[in-house]
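P.,

For your records, the input lines for the assembly:
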Amino acid sequence: MFEITRYESRKRVRGAYLMTVGFILLAGLYIGLYPSFAESGVEFETYIENLPESVRNVFGAELSTIEGFLAVELYQFLWLLLFGIYLAYSGGGLVAADVERGRLDLLLATPVSRARIVAEKYLSLLVPIVLANLVLPLAVWGGVRIVDETISAADLFAVHLLSVPYLLVCAGLGLVLSVTFDRADIAQRGGIAAVFGLFLVDAVTVDTDYEWLGTLSPTRYYDPGDVLIEGTYDVTGALVLLAAALLLLLVSVIYFQRRDIN
Amino acid sequence: MAAIEVTDLTKAYGDVVANDSLTFEVEAGEIFGYLGPNGAGKTTTIRTLMGFQSPTEGTATVLGRDVRDDRALREAKRDVGFLPGDPAFDESVTGEAFLDFQAKLKGDSRREELLSMFDPPLEREIREYSTGNKQMLGIVQAFMHDPDLVIMDEPTSGLDPLKVETFNSFLRRERDAGTTVFFSSHILGEVRRVCDRVGIIREGTLVALEDIDSLLRRGGKRVVVHAKEGIEAADLAVEGVVDLTTLDDGAQFTFAGDYNDLLDILADYTIVDLQIEEPPLEDVFMHFYGPSENEHPDPLGNESEGSGTEPTQDVEVEEADV
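Structure tokens returned:
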């Protein structure tokens, strides 16, 4: 078991390292900006107050504290959006790219079930997920200390741990598209659009009559702001996301077992 | 038990019928050539046999397992080797890493033996491979788990002539050791040299199923001869010469007789140029199985794979091999 995951994972290591380094650099940049940002905090809060409510909800947290600043700048943007998109994009390529190039034939010819192929390929996305979630909290912790601020280690750990189900859902969205379309670029672009679209749906419907629409979005079940600013952990939300990720995997497997591969 | 048993197999992609009610068997321990022009539906049959797609109607068994039963077919695949047409690999891994991966999934008891005959540069990334090297890597993976049945789609394409010879004699040894081989080709000569039996497919339909001796009798070579003094048509009125056309300085015809008779005749001339080559497959069909439906449009307007879309000049002509 897991031969396919191991093989696919090896191919992902390099990309995962590069991505993690990129995240560290971005995190360093944000944290480095924080002291000067905190000084001008009053002006910025006035600016936020003047934004329309729906826009304020997208960015609206307490930016004047390091926790609020990290939640908005780093976790909302970098983690929820950028990392989510990266995984949906990677998920979109998992199967479709191999089908498109004809590379899947030699794997399908082996005595391995299609279900196993799909599931093991999906699991290979744990490489970037685990690596980034192990390294980035350490980098953030260190960065925050360097600018003479403090942050709760438990909350920092929790914000990363609770993000894993969310990230698995993003990868799962890409996977569903990947088993559906024979062209990788369609599946990959579809994955990006799905994650970005769902992110926006949740953000702009908060406190409106259409708030229920946001329950379809994975971002509704994981809020880095709640964890970092208020110290509350939405374990139920994480379980909902984990169930959704499993469902997406199951749907992908069932569909992929039935279809023709041309 | 037949190694492959195809029964009324039909595969349609939308309105296009790529395989139309095919029925044939491949006996255990034979080399079976699946011959047809490009676009005839050979790959469609192979992909159905491998379980990559389901039949529209009818079915097939591979080593006794029904291709519609995913679980059963998976069991059969332990003993099946497969080489796709124009095989595609992960470009970013080395040949060695690819074989290691395949070995974990199906075994590799004969890897070293195969690598002594087919030797792609294993330590290099596959992105650097030539077509021939990719083909050799494909051949090694197809046979390395010592399969009972090997299914191959155009196995010699991209191989240099020496490797083709190595491959052909390897196939014969495998056959003698009991392995069943099923491979597709659009080159008549190749099928002639190694196959015991041949199925000919055209426009999705099986038009002939025969042993190689009958095909040899029915076949023929395209001969073009140029002589200083020109060729007298009367001299060529011997058995085996058909479709004779005289040229200003020579003649062109299809020859299915004894080469020695032909050479005796030509010995009286001062030969400037002599070509003896495989006839294009479409010509063979024209001679022996009648004109294709392309020339006589189906009154019902039924389409089949290849009609109108595959130019016949696509058919490969082999260089003289005498």
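Two observations worth noting. Chain B is about 30% helix and 30% strand. The mean pLDDT of chain B is 86.

Regards
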